[in-house]
């Protein structure tokens, strides 16, 4: 049995069946008593949250591209360019699930990441070449041959392209929207060994 609603602020005027005038103060009092909000306010709040999510989702990839451009622009030597190429490939490997352990050399990381990242034989060779070049660049300062620098840059691009093409659509979306490369290792609180 349903009890009749006595305090409903809608009343039919006598003689008018289709018109439903309302008592505004009673409606607002009823809404406040039942903790109901204005539907326009709820809609604006929801749209605000959606807009915030879209802005963050757009800002992360743009920030990563800007950071990458800035890092490449600040390179002054061939050795630095090789190390930047290695860092870019290492970021891609980290997103693919093969982060570098603190105890690994570049080459050890390359060999392990080739298996974890499901790289093919050619990208795996490129990754090992890049790792060896990055190891040499760590000590070379300005003495890196230009051909080796270009080969390293190409190898980094090959590795990133191989990881990207082997990834599913959902992985690509997660990698694109991941802010992990923007957060320093010291802020994540995770040990990588």
Mind sketching the topology for me?
Blueprint: H1 24-33, H2 39-73, H3 78-95, H4 106-116, H5 121-140, H6 146-166, H7 169-177, H8 185-188
Helix pairs in contact: 3-5, 3-6, 4-5, 5-6
What form results from the Cα inertia axes? Answer: elongated
Strand content: under 5%
Helix content: 55-70%
Largest sheet: none
Radius of gyration: 29 Å
Question: Uncertain spans, ≥5 residues at pLDDT below 50?
Answer: none
The overall average pLDDT, rounded, is 82
- Name the assembly state: single chain
Supply the number of helical segments: 8
* H and E order: HHHHHHHH
Distance between the termini: 66 Å
Characterise the protein shown here.
This protein is mainly α and 193 residues long. The chain contains 8 helices and no strands. It has helices at 24-33, 39-73, 78-95, 106-116, 121-140, 146-166, 169-177, 185-188. α3 crosses α5 and α4 (106-116) packs antiparallel against α5 (121-140). The radius of gyration is 29 Å and the shape is elongated. The termini are far apart.
List keywords for this structure.
single chain, 8 helices, 193 residues, mainly alpha, 66% helix
Q: How do you describe this structure in short?
A:
By secondary structure, this protein is mainly alpha-helical.
């Amino acid at each position: 049995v349903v009890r009749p609603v006595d305090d409903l602020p809608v009343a039919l005027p006598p003689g008018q069946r289709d018109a439903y005038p309302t008592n505004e103060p009673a409606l607002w009092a009823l809404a406040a008593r039942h903790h109901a909000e204005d539907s326009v306010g709820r809609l604006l709040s929801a749209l605000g949250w959606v807009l915030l999510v879209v802005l963050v989702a757009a800002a992360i990839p743009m920030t990563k591209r800007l950071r990458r451009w800035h890092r490449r622009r600040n390179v002054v030597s061939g050795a630095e360019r090789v190390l930047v190429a290695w860092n870019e490939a290492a970021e891609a490997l980290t997103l693919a699930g093969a982060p570098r352990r603190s105890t690994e050399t570049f080459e050890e990381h390359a060999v392990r990441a080739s298996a974890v990242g499901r790289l093919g034989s050619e990208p795996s060779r490129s990754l090992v070449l890049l790792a060896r070049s990055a190891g040499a660049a760590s000590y070379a300062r300005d003495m890196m041959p230009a051909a080796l620098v270009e080969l390293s840059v190409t190898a980094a691009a090959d590795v990133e392209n191989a990881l990207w093409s082997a990834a599913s659509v959902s992985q690509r979306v997660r990698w694109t929207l991941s802010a992990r490369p923007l957060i320093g290792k010291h802020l994540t609180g995770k040990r990588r060994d």
